């Protein structure tokens, strides 16, 4: 067992929501629980989740690699996903991404040397009218991100990293 007892209890609660022959329906929630605890989803955690749920490991692997909210490689403490789909791209999404690349000194799919930031391109976040849009750590949506707001976001996240 690679996760804490609390994580398995949370997975049990997810499994209880579905009939016994539909255990695969709990894969996404189970991966989110595992990633929250581990920070990312290495192969052995994917296999552990599959075994615990009782589904083939490939079923878990397919979900983990299909959805960009799941990280199958290590990421920084703060993962910043920038929407670069067409509506956001037309409304400064690409400029926001370029600004963050310069500010952090990394490209998309890279992590800063201090391990604080990973920058990724995100898929549509459903807030096209508020672009440019980003998502921090898969949980906190930031909208209408000007360079000033991006700068403040990075400084705030750095301050959190230094105080932790």
From TrEMBL:
Organism of provenance: Bordetella genomosp. 4
Cofactor(s) of this protein: [2Fe-2S] cluster
Protein name stated in the entry: NADH-quinone oxidoreductase subunit E
Keyword Iron-sulfur (UniProt): yes
GO MF annotations in UniProt: 2 iron, 2 sulfur cluster binding; metal ion binding; NADH dehydrogenase activity
Signal peptide range: none
Lineage: Bacteria, Pseudomonadati, Pseudomonadota, Betaproteobacteria, Burkholderiales
Binding site for [2Fe-2S] cluster: 83, 88, 124, 128
CC cofactor note: Binds 1 [2Fe-2S] cluster.
Family statement: Belongs to the complex I 24 kDa subunit family.
Catalytic activity: a quinone + NADH + 5 H(+)(in) = a quinol + NAD(+) + 4 H(+)(out)
SUPFAM superfamilies: Thioredoxin-like (SSF52833)
Record key words, sorted: 2Fe-2S, Iron, Iron-sulfur, Metal-binding
Keyword Cell membrane applies: no
């Amino acid at each position: 067992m690679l996760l804490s007892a609390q994580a398995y209890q949370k997975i049990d609660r997810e499994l209880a929501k579905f009939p016994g022959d539909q255990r695969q329906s709990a894969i996404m929630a189970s991966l989110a629980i595992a990633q929250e605890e581990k920070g990312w989803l290495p192969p052995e955690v994917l296999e552990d989740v599959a075994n615990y749920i009782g589904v083939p490991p490939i079923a878990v692997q397919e979900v983990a690699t299909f959805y960009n909210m799941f990280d199958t490689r290590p990421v920084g403490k703060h993962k910043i996903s920038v929407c670069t789909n067409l509506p956001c791209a037309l409304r400064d999404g690409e400029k926001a991404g370029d600004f963050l690349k310069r500010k952090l000194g990394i490209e998309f799919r890279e992590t800063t040397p201090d391990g604080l930031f990973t920058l990724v391109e995100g898929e549509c976040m459903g807030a096209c009218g508020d672009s440019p849009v980003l998502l921090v750590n898969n949980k906190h949506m930031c909208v209408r991100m000007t360079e000033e707001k991006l700068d403040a976001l990075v400084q705030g996240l750095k301050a959190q990293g230094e105080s932790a």
